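Just wondering, can you check both lines?
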Amino acid sequence: MDPQFNEKSNRTLGIDGNADLSSNEKIGRDEEAPESGESYDTGLTRDGVKMHPQPTADPLDPLNWSSWKKHSILGIVMWLYFLFTYITTTTVPSFPEIQTTYDITYSQVNWTVAIPALGLAFGPLFWSSLADIYGRRVIFISGTTIAFVATIGAAKASSYGGYMAARFFQGFGVSPGATVGMAIIGDMFFEYERGQKLGLWVLAIDSGLLVGPIIGGFMNIVGQFWVDWLTAILFAALLVVEVAFLPETLYPRNHMLSRMPLGTGAGDIEKTGRKMSSAGEVDLKRTTKLPFINVKPVPGMRHPKPWDSFGLLFLGLLLGTLFSEVFCSGRLSDWLVARLTKQNGGVRVAEMRLWLAYPAALLSAIGLIIWGISVDKAYHWIVGQIAFFLFAMGIQMGNTVITSYIVDCYPLQSMSVITFYSVFLNLSAFINPFFIAPWVTADGYTITFAVQGIITFFVSVPVFVAIHYWGPQLREKSGQPGWVNPEYDTL
């Protein structure tokens, strides 16, 4: 990474409380900008450790809001993030009814879970930069409104195409719960507090994944479409709460530190009596003083271009995922299994699905290795995007193969085995952030991601080979489970 880029980014983000002078010039300060090198460092510490972000004396600063207010907002963020995964899994118990209603195949029913996931993947690319321009509140309200309307559309859809379109916009609308939700937490809580708050935030998404099928199962007893109507009620209630109780949290910190500092070397925040200034001391609309529905860029800060999110990290991942799904995953897997079944005298074996697992492991490993090297060597940005493209292709292909394989192994217990797989999939996503950052700090990107790539290939391939060879014998010895999905059970 370019050190100058990091330094510039740190100044822009207000790290260590230093003001971005070019930003001050752009917002038309009356007073003269300080000479180069002068800092608006308030020097506030906690237990001898410098605080980040540095707070101001402004009562409109989200860091200064009451604990009750902060945690109420955190609850709203968690509510939307809960629905982030809830919408994808709550319809699973009604799969047989969806299949009958729209006269579709079982594979097409599975796509009704994939399409909102596509909206969840695409949404952050659209919403993230807008949230840094117009603020968090208007993006949360807009996204929830879209998800609410889309959920009503899903409940009233008369065709499979209409239902799929509604499901996509459900995911697209709820997607601000991820990136924008995390930004809201960062706006309100100090660095030393964020671990617990982000833990609650992650708990919300994991709970949505697991609670969704439970609630969906009960609602499906009432009626297939009541699954969607209940989800619409949850979105409607959330929308009312957002409009009434979610203030703007995007705060022009650098500018306010320059206009309303606490004083250099203020000392330990636990021992220093902090007196709030009057909000009217600075004539700049911010947080709760912004319009009820703000449609103008939040003043006092430099804003990204609306398309910035599209051109950076996620483009390669998105394209790789889409390319893999269209050309290398579901349909290719079905074609390969059909061909192998014909060669096997019409006998279909679940292990036929696993042939695509080997190129999936290879692509994922290559992508990880190239990514790590490209960062350390400061290669052109397109190299990193190619690495992400390959990695995403492998991940999409691998997830499709594994999901199809375990369902083929236990078709009568598909709900249970998919739940088991989802738990482990999300646990891996939960564990990963705890060791990646320290590992990169200690060994650099090349070693960190190259080792992960090597592990991905040289551990997963032997496992797949073993399952490929001994899978049928293991299933035969263990026998079939003593339970089945409700739709296959009898009274």
